[in-house]
Amino acid sequence: MKEDTKILSQILFNKLKIDLDKTPVEHLSNYIAIEYFLTIEDEPPSDVTNLEKVNRYLQSFDHLCEVKDWEKANKILLTNLNNTNGESNENLANLLHVWDYHSELVKIYSKLCDNLNKLNKHTEATCWQNLARGYRFLDQYSDAEVFYKKAQSLFDDLGEKKKIGWIFHDLGLMDADRNKDQDAYENYKKALNIFKKNHDFKGIALVLNDIARVKVNQRKYSKAIQIYRQIIDSYLPKVKDEESRAWIFHNFSRSLTNRGEYREAYKYNAQSLKLFRQIDHRTGIGWSLYNFSLLALCLKKNKSAYVFANNGLTLFRELKNQTGIASLLHVLGVIAFSQDRSKTFDFYKEKILIWHHLGNLPGIAQALEGFARLSLEREPLCAIRLFSAAQAIRRNTKFALPFSDIDEYKLSVNTARKNLDATTFKSAWTSGMQMSPKEAIREALSIKSK
């Protein structure tokens, strides 16, 4: 977004066609305030937050809502804030999403959605879709699903198939967030079919990207990389949207890391980080730092891994991104393992409690494997039960062990197997397979006191 928002806001005020001479007296103070925010208020300092930089628009939106001028309020959200050529992906609503102000996005669209009878059907559908997107990023999936369905029904009535494709895509992402890979895959296929029929290359590229992520979860790395190369060769040259390109490069880098192709993984992750920084996409920056921390771990460069992980963790804590926090706590726990077992325990404890709260079973499995390593020397039977409980979760969810963890996992389990007789090992393993995730978490958290 350009720093000089004042010129753009003056142009917007002219487009709103507000005539103070014809404004009812009871509404006059609101429209005078809008004129002030859009034409008179000074440019904000360059060092303020992005939210403060667009304050003039948010204030104007609120005043328009107060006088129930819903059409003009909606125009505020859709105005391009980067040039004067009309609407684009850099409108206020989309920028709030990119900047991770999802709570603000929900507040804004909740006001509009309460008064949708004053707007046309297309605008109504778009409002429900944006409200749903806000709730999705706040991990409030039930609300998001309800609003996506409302939007889908309206877009269906209007015959807007491409819009329905994006809703199927988002529903797939929600399924993936909840570890429902098969449901996600079905929604992705519906979206892909629509996008192909409509020659929507951005849609095709992003859906294929998410299908490839499903393949990565299944450890089908060769298939995932094949899909990514198809995206980059056939579709990405036609996609100009920086956010979309950044996520594709990011996820391709993850796949390459899992295959041990570190040099190429580094190249694509560097490209994703550059793009995320250009658009100030803080969540994307955090995940790029996570990728770099994994790459550094794989290359045995723990000091670099720590810097990347610590910086990413700080950012995710600011964003209150629980998935990101838990993922980077894992990296920090691995780094601390050889030096400070107590600190490793603290990292793993926070991580497993987050995954439990989110209901993320693959995350719980990975955390249990970490605790198992911690208990291997002093409590080998406990370690075997935790390794086994984790495998049971992976089997039930069909989430394979990450590539970066395989060698350490095999070494740890084989060490326990060598130090125990076959009957004892089998008994402990069987016991772990029968534990519920909650029981396994309770045992893992008791390690420190033993």
Kindly describe this structure.
With 450 residues, this protein is mainly alpha-helical. It has helices spanning 5-16, 28-40, 50-53, 55-66, 70-78, 92-98, 102-113, 121-137, 141-158, 161-177, 181-197, 201-217, 221-235, 242-258, 262-278, 282-298, 302-319, 322-336, 341-358, 361-375, 380-397, 403-419, 422-433, 437-445. It is elongated, with a radius of gyration of 25 Å.
In short:
With 450 residues, the chain is mostly helical.
List key phrases describing it.
single chain, 450 residues, mainly alpha, 24 helices, 76% helix, 0% strand, elongated
Element-by-element helix/strand order: HHHHHHHHHHHHHHHHHHHHHHHH
| Unreliably modeled segments | 84-88
Taking the alpha carbons of the first and last residues, their distance comes to 55 Å
Strand content: under 5%
Count of helical stretches:
24
Number of strands: 0
Overall helicity: over 70%
Overall shape: elongated
- The class by helix and strand makeup works out as mainly alpha
What's the pLDDT, averaged over the residues?
90
Radius of gyration: 25 Å
Largest sheet, strands/sense/barrel = none
SSE arrangement:
Blueprint: H1 5-16, H2 28-40, H3 50-53, H4 55-66, H5 70-78, H6 92-98, H7 102-113, H8 121-137, H9 141-158, H10 161-177, H11 181-197, H12 201-217, H13 221-235, H14 242-258, H15 262-278, H16 282-298, H17 302-319, H18 322-336, H19 341-358, H20 361-375, H21 380-397, H22 403-419, H23 422-433, H24 437-445
Helix pairs in contact: 1-2, 2-4, 4-5, 7-8, 8-9, 9-10, 10-11, 10-12, 11-12, 12-13, 12-14, 13-14, 14-15, 14-16, 15-16, 16-17, 16-18, 17-18, 18-19, 18-20, 19-20, 20-21, 20-24, 21-23, 21-24
